[in-house]
Amino acid sequence: MKILLLEDDAMLNEIMREHLEKNKHQVRSSCCAIQVEQILHEQSFDLLIIDVNVSNIDGCNLLKTLRDQDIQTAAIFITSTTMFQDTKKDINSPCNDYLKKPFALKDLDSRIKKIQILSNVA
Q1: Is the dihedral of CA 111, 117, 119, 121 positive or negative?
Q2: Inter-CA distances, 2 with 5, 26, 80, 101, 111, Å
Q3: Would you tell me how many other CB atoms lie within 10 Å of the CB of residue 13?
Q4: In the predicted model, is pLDDT for residue 17 greater than 50?
Q5: Per the omega criterion (within 30 degrees of 0), is the bond before 102 cis?
Q6: What is the side-by-side strand order in the sheet with 97-100?
Q7: Where are the domains of the chain?
Q8: Among 57, 86, 112, 114, which one has the highest count of C-beta atoms within 10 angstroms of its own C-beta?
Q9: Residues 6+ apart with CB under 8 A from 8
């Protein structure tokens, strides 16, 4: 699966990228929402993993902008925000799934597997 990861915590970004690559995913990662938006206009991905609380543009607004630009790539939000669970229930939420920080990498794997099955993406 080709994954674009947005996580502004450099250490967590590296841990997640290495884990995903170890699990045979092709990963491009960034710490900057603006850079992610530019990357998405140059390349396509099977999955976006987006931290909600990043500088420049928050992850929710970034994904809403992408959806408005007809970029419909499946997305998983990762967040430390405690109120996000209620937000996710909103029918207008642009993400397919979310994980609350801290999370186990096996939980991320499960979310990815679910999206692979629903999307029929290898």
Answers
A1: positive
A2: 10, 5, 25, 23, 15
A3: 17
A4: yes
A5: yes
A6: 26-30, 2-6, 47-51, 74-79, 97-100
A7: 2-119
A8: 112
A9: 31, 32, 51, 53, 54, 55
pLDDT digits (tens, 9 = 90+) for 41-66: 999 999 999 999 888 788 888 999 99
Question: Between 87 and 110, where is the model more confident?
Answer: 110
CATH number of 2-119: 3.40.50.2300
For residues 76 and 48, is the Cβ–Cβ distance under 8 A?
A: yes
Phi-psi region of 83 (alpha: psi -120 to 50; beta: other; left: phi over 0): alpha
State pLDDT tens for residues 94-105: 889 989 999 999
Spatial CB neighbours of 92, under 8 Å, sequence gap ≥ 6: none
